[in-house]
Amino acid sequence: MVELKDGLLNDKHKDQYWNDGYLFPMQAVSREQAQDWRNQLEALEAKWLDNGLPLPLNTYKRVNAQCVMPLACEIGLHPGILDVVEGILGPDIMLYSTEFFIKEPQTKHVVTMHQDLTYWGMGEIDGLLTAWLALSDVTSQSGCMDFVKGSHKNPILPHEDSSDENNLLSRGQEIAVDVAEEDKVAVELAPGQLSLHHGLTIHGSGPNADNDRRIGVAIRYLSPYIKKQAGGQDYAIPARGDCLAGNFKTYAAPDQDFAPEALKLYNDIRDVQTAVMMAGAKDNSGIYEKVK
Predict the structure, then answer these.
(1) Which fold has domain 11-277?
(2) What does the chain look like in DSSP terms, one character per residue?
(3) Tens of pLDDT along 127-148?
Protein backbone atom coordinates (compact mmCIF):
# COMPACT_ATOMS: atom_id res chain seq x y z
CA MET A 1 0.00 0.00 0.00
CA VAL A 2 1.33 3.43 -0.94
CA GLU A 3 0.68 5.50 2.17
CA LEU A 4 -0.22 9.07 1.26
CA LYS A 5 0.48 11.95 3.63
CA ASP A 6 -2.21 14.61 3.31
CA GLY A 7 -3.19 12.86 0.07
CA LEU A 8 0.20 13.50 -1.57
CA LEU A 9 3.02 11.36 -2.94
CA ASN A 10 6.43 11.69 -1.32
CA ASP A 11 9.78 11.63 -3.11
CA LYS A 12 10.17 7.88 -2.58
CA HIS A 13 6.82 7.25 -4.26
CA LYS A 14 7.76 9.47 -7.19
CA ASP A 15 11.10 7.70 -7.64
CA GLN A 16 9.30 4.36 -7.59
CA TYR A 17 6.91 5.50 -10.32
CA TRP A 18 9.72 6.67 -12.58
CA ASN A 19 11.76 3.53 -11.93
CA ASP A 20 8.95 0.98 -12.37
CA GLY A 21 6.63 2.81 -14.77
CA TYR A 22 3.71 2.43 -12.37
CA LEU A 23 2.65 2.94 -8.77
CA PHE A 24 -0.13 1.28 -6.74
CA PRO A 25 -2.26 1.07 -4.68
CA MET A 26 -3.23 4.49 -3.33
CA GLN A 27 -6.50 5.06 -1.44
CA ALA A 28 -7.38 8.18 -3.41
CA VAL A 29 -11.06 8.23 -2.40
CA SER A 30 -13.10 6.41 0.24
CA ARG A 31 -14.85 3.10 -0.37
CA GLU A 32 -18.10 4.95 0.26
CA GLN A 33 -17.34 7.46 -2.49
CA ALA A 34 -16.43 4.65 -4.88
CA GLN A 35 -19.69 2.86 -4.09
CA ASP A 36 -21.67 6.06 -4.66
CA TRP A 37 -20.01 6.53 -8.07
CA ARG A 38 -20.77 2.91 -8.94
CA ASN A 39 -24.40 3.43 -7.97
CA GLN A 40 -24.60 6.55 -10.14
CA LEU A 41 -23.00 4.75 -13.08
CA GLU A 42 -25.36 1.80 -12.88
CA ALA A 43 -28.36 4.12 -12.58
CA LEU A 44 -27.16 5.95 -15.70
CA GLU A 45 -26.76 2.63 -17.53
CA ALA A 46 -30.33 1.64 -16.66
CA LYS A 47 -31.72 5.02 -17.74
CA TRP A 48 -29.85 5.46 -21.03
CA LEU A 49 -29.32 1.93 -22.39
CA ASP A 50 -32.32 2.11 -24.77
CA ASN A 51 -32.92 5.85 -24.77
CA GLY A 52 -32.25 6.67 -28.40
CA LEU A 53 -28.63 7.85 -28.23
CA PRO A 54 -26.91 8.39 -31.60
CA LEU A 55 -24.22 5.84 -30.71
CA PRO A 56 -24.35 2.78 -28.43
CA LEU A 57 -24.16 3.66 -24.75
CA ASN A 58 -21.01 1.57 -24.42
CA THR A 59 -19.22 3.82 -26.91
CA TYR A 60 -19.90 6.86 -24.75
CA LYS A 61 -18.75 5.03 -21.62
CA ARG A 62 -15.56 3.81 -23.29
CA VAL A 63 -14.51 6.88 -25.29
CA ASN A 64 -14.39 10.39 -23.82
CA ALA A 65 -17.16 9.88 -21.29
CA GLN A 66 -16.06 13.15 -19.70
CA CYS A 67 -17.48 15.03 -22.69
CA VAL A 68 -21.08 13.84 -22.26
CA MET A 69 -21.39 12.48 -18.70
CA PRO A 70 -21.03 14.79 -15.67
CA LEU A 71 -20.21 11.73 -13.54
CA ALA A 72 -17.11 11.03 -15.62
CA CYS A 73 -15.93 14.61 -15.08
CA GLU A 74 -16.73 14.49 -11.37
CA ILE A 75 -14.44 11.47 -11.09
CA GLY A 76 -11.71 12.86 -13.35
CA LEU A 77 -11.64 16.23 -11.58
CA HIS A 78 -11.84 14.88 -8.03
CA PRO A 79 -9.28 16.73 -5.85
CA GLY A 80 -8.08 13.54 -4.14
CA ILE A 81 -7.14 11.98 -7.47
CA LEU A 82 -5.62 15.21 -8.82
CA ASP A 83 -3.48 15.48 -5.67
CA VAL A 84 -1.89 12.12 -6.48
CA VAL A 85 -1.46 12.93 -10.17
CA GLU A 86 0.19 16.27 -9.35
CA GLY A 87 3.04 14.37 -7.73
CA ILE A 88 3.99 13.01 -11.16
CA LEU A 89 2.86 15.62 -13.70
CA GLY A 90 3.32 18.74 -11.61
CA PRO A 91 0.81 21.49 -10.73
CA ASP A 92 -0.53 22.06 -14.27
CA ILE A 93 -2.86 19.24 -15.30
CA MET A 94 -5.39 18.66 -18.06
CA LEU A 95 -8.02 15.91 -18.17
CA TYR A 96 -7.65 14.18 -21.53
CA SER A 97 -10.23 11.40 -21.19
CA THR A 98 -12.26 9.29 -18.79
CA GLU A 99 -13.16 5.74 -19.78
CA PHE A 100 -15.26 3.16 -17.96
CA PHE A 101 -13.71 -0.30 -18.41
CA ILE A 102 -16.29 -2.88 -17.31
CA LYS A 103 -16.04 -6.66 -17.45
CA GLU A 104 -19.29 -8.41 -16.72
CA PRO A 105 -19.30 -11.45 -14.39
CA GLN A 106 -18.12 -14.74 -15.85
CA THR A 107 -17.09 -13.25 -19.20
CA LYS A 108 -14.05 -13.73 -21.40
CA HIS A 109 -13.32 -10.09 -22.23
CA VAL A 110 -9.62 -9.23 -22.02
CA VAL A 111 -7.30 -6.33 -22.64
CA THR A 112 -4.26 -7.56 -24.54
CA MET A 113 -0.78 -6.41 -23.52
CA HIS A 114 -0.09 -3.00 -25.04
CA GLN A 115 1.35 0.49 -24.55
CA ASP A 116 -1.18 3.33 -24.32
CA LEU A 117 0.78 5.80 -26.44
CA THR A 118 1.01 3.53 -29.49
CA TYR A 119 -1.82 5.07 -31.50
CA TRP A 120 -2.45 8.42 -29.82
CA GLY A 121 -0.22 10.54 -32.05
CA MET A 122 1.73 12.00 -29.12
CA GLY A 123 5.00 10.14 -29.50
CA GLU A 124 7.08 8.80 -26.62
CA ILE A 125 6.35 11.34 -23.92
CA ASP A 126 6.51 11.50 -20.13
CA GLY A 127 3.80 14.15 -19.81
CA LEU A 128 0.84 11.77 -19.93
CA LEU A 129 -0.27 9.13 -17.45
CA THR A 130 -3.26 6.96 -16.70
CA ALA A 131 -4.85 6.89 -13.27
CA TRP A 132 -6.95 3.72 -12.96
CA LEU A 133 -9.62 3.83 -10.26
CA ALA A 134 -11.45 0.76 -8.95
CA LEU A 135 -15.21 1.03 -8.38
CA SER A 136 -15.45 -2.66 -7.46
CA ASP A 137 -13.06 -5.19 -5.96
CA VAL A 138 -10.48 -5.76 -8.67
CA THR A 139 -8.54 -9.02 -8.29
CA SER A 140 -6.69 -11.53 -10.43
CA GLN A 141 -9.91 -13.56 -10.39
CA SER A 142 -11.94 -10.67 -11.77
CA GLY A 143 -9.41 -9.62 -14.41
CA CYS A 144 -7.20 -6.97 -12.84
CA MET A 145 -4.53 -5.23 -14.85
CA ASP A 146 -1.02 -6.65 -15.13
CA PHE A 147 1.98 -4.33 -15.46
CA VAL A 148 5.47 -5.14 -16.76
CA LYS A 149 8.01 -3.50 -14.49
CA GLY A 150 10.37 -1.06 -16.17
CA SER A 151 8.78 -1.50 -19.59
CA HIS A 152 8.20 2.25 -19.92
CA LYS A 153 11.92 2.58 -20.61
CA ASN A 154 11.30 0.98 -24.02
CA PRO A 155 10.29 3.01 -27.06
CA ILE A 156 6.90 2.38 -28.62
CA LEU A 157 7.13 -1.27 -29.62
CA PRO A 158 5.58 -2.84 -32.72
CA HIS A 159 1.90 -3.72 -32.19
CA GLU A 160 -0.45 -5.93 -34.16
CA ASP A 161 -4.23 -5.65 -34.51
CA SER A 162 -6.43 -8.49 -33.30
CA SER A 163 -9.88 -9.46 -34.54
CA ASP A 164 -10.73 -11.22 -31.28
CA GLU A 165 -14.27 -10.15 -30.33
CA ASN A 166 -13.37 -10.53 -26.64
CA ASN A 167 -10.66 -7.85 -26.84
CA LEU A 168 -11.89 -4.61 -25.25
CA LEU A 169 -9.30 -2.38 -26.95
CA SER A 170 -10.30 -0.03 -29.75
CA ARG A 171 -8.47 -1.94 -32.50
CA GLY A 172 -7.42 -5.06 -30.58
CA GLN A 173 -3.87 -3.75 -30.35
CA GLU A 174 -1.24 -6.03 -28.84
CA ILE A 175 2.53 -5.76 -28.64
CA ALA A 176 4.16 -8.09 -31.15
CA VAL A 177 6.35 -9.74 -28.51
CA ASP A 178 5.54 -12.38 -25.93
CA VAL A 179 5.34 -11.33 -22.28
CA ALA A 180 6.27 -14.07 -19.84
CA GLU A 181 3.79 -14.70 -17.04
CA GLU A 182 6.53 -14.23 -14.45
CA ASP A 183 7.12 -10.69 -15.76
CA LYS A 184 3.53 -9.61 -15.04
CA VAL A 185 2.69 -7.76 -11.81
CA ALA A 186 -0.97 -8.15 -10.80
CA VAL A 187 -2.54 -4.79 -9.94
CA GLU A 188 -5.18 -5.77 -7.41
CA LEU A 189 -7.25 -2.86 -6.08
CA ALA A 190 -10.09 -2.36 -3.61
CA PRO A 191 -12.89 0.15 -4.30
CA GLY A 192 -11.54 3.69 -4.12
CA GLN A 193 -7.96 2.60 -4.70
CA LEU A 194 -5.92 3.95 -7.57
CA SER A 195 -2.99 2.91 -9.70
CA LEU A 196 -0.86 5.16 -11.91
CA HIS A 197 1.00 4.05 -15.02
CA HIS A 198 3.20 5.68 -17.64
CA GLY A 199 1.97 5.87 -21.23
CA LEU A 200 4.71 3.48 -22.37
CA THR A 201 4.22 0.87 -19.63
CA ILE A 202 3.22 -2.51 -21.06
CA HIS A 203 -0.03 -3.67 -19.48
CA GLY A 204 -3.15 -5.73 -20.06
CA SER A 205 -5.74 -7.76 -18.18
CA GLY A 206 -7.43 -11.15 -18.23
CA PRO A 207 -11.07 -12.30 -18.16
CA ASN A 208 -13.48 -11.86 -15.27
CA ALA A 209 -14.11 -15.25 -13.66
CA ASP A 210 -15.78 -13.63 -10.64
CA ASN A 211 -19.48 -13.26 -9.87
CA ASP A 212 -19.43 -9.45 -9.70
CA ARG A 213 -18.80 -6.84 -12.37
CA ARG A 214 -15.22 -5.63 -12.58
CA ILE A 215 -15.59 -1.86 -12.87
CA GLY A 216 -12.62 0.42 -13.40
CA VAL A 217 -12.25 4.01 -14.54
CA ALA A 218 -9.23 4.79 -16.72
CA ILE A 219 -8.51 8.52 -16.39
CA ARG A 220 -5.93 10.02 -18.76
CA TYR A 221 -4.14 13.16 -17.61
CA LEU A 222 -1.58 15.18 -19.50
CA SER A 223 0.65 18.19 -19.10
CA PRO A 224 -0.63 21.21 -21.05
CA TYR A 225 2.91 21.70 -22.40
CA ILE A 226 3.08 18.56 -24.53
CA LYS A 227 2.17 18.80 -28.20
CA LYS A 228 0.36 16.26 -30.29
CA GLN A 229 2.56 15.14 -33.18
CA ALA A 230 -0.07 13.70 -35.52
CA GLY A 231 -3.61 14.63 -36.50
CA GLY A 232 -5.48 17.86 -35.85
CA GLN A 233 -5.48 19.83 -32.64
CA ASP A 234 -6.89 17.65 -29.87
CA TYR A 235 -9.11 18.56 -26.90
CA ALA A 236 -8.75 18.48 -23.11
CA ILE A 237 -10.42 19.91 -20.01
CA PRO A 238 -8.41 22.19 -17.69
CA ALA A 239 -8.15 20.35 -14.40
CA ARG A 240 -5.64 22.24 -12.25
CA GLY A 241 -3.12 25.05 -12.53
CA ASP A 242 -2.18 26.91 -15.72
CA CYS A 243 -3.67 25.17 -18.76
CA LEU A 244 -3.36 28.03 -21.25
CA ALA A 245 -0.37 26.81 -23.30
CA GLY A 246 -2.66 26.50 -26.32
CA ASN A 247 -1.62 23.00 -27.35
CA PHE A 248 -5.12 21.62 -26.77
CA LYS A 249 -8.55 23.07 -27.37
CA THR A 250 -10.27 23.43 -24.02
CA TYR A 251 -13.90 22.85 -23.15
CA ALA A 252 -16.03 22.85 -20.02
CA ALA A 253 -17.37 19.88 -18.11
CA PRO A 254 -20.95 18.97 -19.10
CA ASP A 255 -23.78 19.87 -16.74
CA GLN A 256 -26.22 17.18 -17.88
CA ASP A 257 -26.06 13.74 -19.47
CA PHE A 258 -25.89 13.62 -23.27
CA ALA A 259 -26.96 17.20 -23.93
CA PRO A 260 -27.22 18.02 -27.68
CA GLU A 261 -24.30 20.46 -27.65
CA ALA A 262 -22.16 17.94 -25.77
CA LEU A 263 -23.02 15.21 -28.29
CA LYS A 264 -21.91 17.50 -31.12
CA LEU A 265 -18.63 18.26 -29.37
CA TYR A 266 -18.22 14.55 -28.70
CA ASN A 267 -18.42 13.85 -32.44
CA ASP A 268 -15.88 16.59 -33.20
CA ILE A 269 -13.41 15.13 -30.69
CA ARG A 270 -14.03 11.59 -31.88
CA ASP A 271 -13.35 12.60 -35.50
CA VAL A 272 -9.99 14.13 -34.58
CA GLN A 273 -8.94 11.16 -32.51
CA THR A 274 -10.25 8.52 -34.94
CA ALA A 275 -8.03 9.90 -37.70
CA VAL A 276 -5.00 9.02 -35.58
CA MET A 277 -6.22 6.04 -33.57
CA MET A 278 -7.51 4.03 -36.53
CA ALA A 279 -4.97 5.04 -39.18
CA GLY A 280 -3.83 1.90 -40.99
CA ALA A 281 -6.33 -0.36 -39.24
CA LYS A 282 -7.54 -3.29 -41.34
CA ASP A 283 -10.98 -3.58 -39.75
CA ASN A 284 -13.66 -1.26 -38.45
CA SER A 285 -13.84 -0.82 -34.71
CA GLY A 286 -16.95 -1.00 -32.57
CA ILE A 287 -15.71 2.11 -30.78
CA TYR A 288 -13.79 4.08 -33.40
CA GLU A 289 -14.92 4.06 -37.00
CA LYS A 290 -12.28 3.26 -39.56
CA VAL A 291 -11.01 6.27 -41.50
CA LYS A 292 -12.23 6.05 -45.11
Answers:
(1) Jelly Rolls (2.60.120)
(2) ----BTTB--HHHHHHHHHHSEEEEEE-S-HHHHHHHHHHHHHHHHHHTTS--SS-HHHHHHS-HHHH-HHHHHHHT-HHHHHHHHHHH-S-EEEEEEEEEEE-TTB--BEEEE-GGGGSSS-S-SSEEEEEEESS-B-TTTT-EEEETTGGGS-PPPEE----TTB-SSS--EESS---GGGEEEE-B-TTEEEEEETT--EEE--B-SSS-EEEEEEEEE-TT----SSS--EEEEEES---SSSSEE-PPPSSTT-HHHHHHHHHHHHHHHHHHTTT-SS--SSSPPP-
(3) 999 999 999 999 999 999 999 9
